[in-house]
Amino acid sequence: MIVIVLLLISFFTGILAWMVPGQEKKEKINVIGSCILACTGIVLSWQVFSMGTFYAIDRAIYVDPFSALIIIVIVIVNLAVSLYSIPYLKREVSHGLVTREQSEKFYLWYHVFVTTMLSVVVVNNLGLMWVAIEATTLASALLVGFYDHKHSLEAAWKYVILCTVGITFGLFGTIFTYYSAMEILGHGTDALYWTKLMEIAPRLDPSLLKLAFVFILVGYGTKAGLAPLHNWLPDAHSQAPTPISAVLSGVLLNCALYGIIRFYSLTNSALLGEFSQQLLLVFGLVSIGIAVPFIVLQKDIKRLLAYSSVEHMGIIALGVGLGSKLALMGAMFHLFNHAMAKSMFFMAVGNIAQKFNTKNITRIKGIVHVMPATVVFFLIGAFALTGLPPFSIFMSEFTIAWAGFTAGKYMVSSLYLLFIALIFAGLGYHVTNMSFGRLSRRVAKEKENTWLLAAMCIPLLFVIGLGFSTPAFVTDILEQIAVVVGGE
Amino acid sequence: MAWMIYLMLGTAFVLVAATSLSRMVRVLSLQSACLALLGFWTAYRSGIGEIYIAASLTFVVKALLIPWILLYTVRRLGVKEQVEFNFGIKKSLLLSLGFVLLSFEVLPPNILHKEIFSGSSLPVAISLVLIGLFIMIARKKALTQIVGLLVMENGLYMLAMSATMGMPLLVEIGIFLDLVVGALVMGILTFRINQSFDSIDTSRLRNLRG
C-alpha cells in the first residue's frame, strides 16, 4: 500500500499545485508535498532495508533494497530541489526570463516527472519499467525546453528525439527477453516479471539473452548518458532550468542505469555475467575518458557539470562491470554519493550563474567576494565531485579502484585512476579561478537567499557525513544491495 | 498473411519517396492499419481475447489518432507541405534497399524459431527500424522526424506481434499511452520551434556544441 501512497502523494502534489490559484499557494503545496514524500519514501526504504523485499498488488509492485536506494535518492534530491526552485523561479520571473504563466505550470510538470521516476523503480514488470522510463523523457521534455528560447528548444528537441530513438532499442531488448521467457512461462504478464525471470534465468536461451542485453545497454545507455551515446546530455543539462538540471543529473540518469543494472543481474544469474561485465567495463571506461577533454577545455559551467555526469555514470557502470561484491558495493555507494554531490553543485552553480548573469567560465571570477556562503557549497561540491577526501565520493571511488586492483584488472583500474586525476586537475583549475580570481565586473554584493542555502544543506549533510566515516548500517545496506544486483 | 509484412515494408519505401507532408502522414496511417490487421489476424488465429483489444488499440491510436494529431499540426502551423531533403529521393531509395538487403544478409532467418508471420519478420522489422532511422536523419522537418520515429515503432511492434503475439495487454496499454503523449509533446515542441525559428527545419537546430 505504502508504495501506491508514495506515487499518489507525488502525483497529487503536482495536480494540486496546478489547480490551486496563486503562486504562493502553489509554492506551499510544492514544499509540503515534497516533505511528506520524503518522509514516506524514507520510511518505506527503511522497512525494506530492515525487513526485506516488499511486494504489493499480486507482485506487480516490487521494492527490493536496490529500488529502495533509488527511492531514497529521489525523495532527498526532490526535497532539496523543491525548496530551491521557489526562490529560483521567482528570480527568473522578476528578471523577465520566464513569464508568470509559464512559471505556474512548472510545479505540475516537475512533480509529474518525479512520479514517473518513482514508478520506474517500483514496478516488477520489465515492460512497464520500459513504459515508465519513456514516460520520464516525455514528462521532462517540456521542462528542458522551459525557457522557450532557441537554445532551450533545440536542447529539448534533441533530448526527446534521441532518447526516444534510444529507448526504442530498449524495447527490442525487452521483446527478446519476453520471447525467451515465454517458452517457459507462457503468454502473459508474469513472463516479464523480474522476480519470475530471475527464478528461471538459467533456463533462458543464452544467445537471445545476450542480444537482449546489447539492445538494453544501447537503449537505456542513451538515456543514462553513457558515451558515445551521450550527445543529448550536455545540451539538455545546460539549457534546462537549474532545478531541473539537478534532478536530471542526480536522479534521472540513475533511473536509466537502474534499467541496465536490472538486466545485468538477469544475465549474471543466467551465467552470462562475463559477457555483460565486459560490455559495461568498455562503456564505463569510454564514458570516463571522453569526459576528460570536455571538462578540461570547457567554457560553459553547466556543460562542464553535464560532462562530469557522463564521467560519474561511467564510474558506476565500471563498478558494476567489475562485478565483484566489493565493486558492486562501491558502485551503489557511488550512485548515492554522486546524486548528492551533483545536485548540490548544480544548485550552487545555479545561484552563481543567476548572480553573474552568465554561464561562461571565463566571465565568472571572484565569487568569494560577492557570495561568501554559496562559494563554500561550490567548492565543497567541486572537490567532492573530483574525489578528494574527506568527502563521500572519495570513499566510493577508492572502493571501486581497490576492487579493480584486487580483481587483477590492472590496466582498467590504472586508466580509471589516470582519468580521474586529469579531471581533478581540470575541474580544480576552473573552480579555483572562478572562486578566487579578481572580480572582473561590477557585481553587487547582496544578502544571499536563506532558502537557497538551506536547500543545499540537505545534500551537503550526506556529502560530508558519509565522507568521514561509513556507519555500519550503511555498509550493511550496501551489502544487501550488492547481493540483489549480483543476482546470486 | 506473410505478404502483409512485405506490404508494410513497401509503405516504408513510399514514405522514403514521399514529397508532401500530409501524404507522408496518410501513408504512415496505412502502414499502421496493416499492423492492426496483422493484430486482428493473430487474435483470430490464436483465439486470445486480449489480442483483439491490443489490435483495436493499434488501429485507433496508430492509424487514426496520431495521424490526426500530425495532420492537425501541419494545418495549424501553416508550413509548406514540401518535404525537405538532406539526401535526394533516388539515393534515399537505394540506401533503403541496401538496409533491407543488409538486414536479410546479416540476420540468419531462424534466430527466433517460432514466428507467426513467416520466418522473416525479424529482418523485416530491423529493415523498418533502419528505414525509420534513415527518414529521421535524411529529412529535415521536425514532422518528418516524428514520422520516422513512428515507422521505427511500427517495425518493433510488428516484431513483437510475430515473435510473442504482442506484449502483455497491460504493457501494450502503457506503450500506447506513451505514444499518444509522445506525439502530443513533440507536437507542442514543433509549435514552439516554429514560433522561435519561423520554420520547422531541424537543420537549424545546431547551435549547441562542445
Outline the structure in words.
The complex is a heterodimer of chains A (488) and B (210). Chain A is an all-alpha fold. Chain A is 79% helix and 1% strand. Chain A is built from 19 helices and two strands. Chain A has a two-stranded antiparallel ribbon with strand order 1-2. In chain A, helix 4 (100-122) runs antiparallel to helix 5, helix 12 (301-322) runs antiparallel to helix 13 and helix 13 packs across helix 19 (472-486). Chain A is globular and about 70 Å long. The model of chain A has no long low-confidence stretch (mean pLDDT 91). Chain B has 210 residues and is an all-alpha fold. Helix content of chain B is 76%, strand content 0%. Chain B has seven helices and no strands. Chain B is globular, with a radius of gyration of 17 Å. Chain B starts with a helix and ends in a 13-residue tail after the last helix. At the A-B interface, helix 5, helix 6, helix 8 and helix 9 of A face helix 5, helix 6 and helix 7 of B.
Keywords:
heterodimer, A: 488 residues, mainly alpha, two-stranded antiparallel sheet, 19 helices, globular, B: 210 residues, 7 helices
Largest interface: A-B, 53 and 43 residues
Sheet-strand content of chain A, in percent, reads under 5%
- Rounded to an integer, what's the Rg of chain A over CA atoms? 21 Å
How much of the sequence of chain B is in beta strands? Answer: under 5%
The largest beta-sheet of chain A arranges its strands as 1-2
Indicate the mean pLDDT of chain A.
91
Spans where pLDDT lies below 50 across 5 or more residues of chain B: none
What's the number of helices of chain B? Answer: 7
Order of SSEs of chain B: HHHHHHH
Tally of extended strands of chain A? 2
User: What's the total count of β strands of chain B?
Assistant: 0
CA-CA gap between termini of chain A = 28 Å
Overall 3D shape of chain A = globular
Gross morphology of chain B: globular
The SS-based structural class of chain A is: mainly alpha
Q: Main sheet of chain B, how many strands, which sense, barrel?
A: none
Number of helices, where a helix is a run of at least 4 consecutive DSSP H or I residues of chain A: 19
Which structural class fits the helix and strand makeup of chain B? mainly alpha
Q: Give helix % range of chain B.
A: over 70%
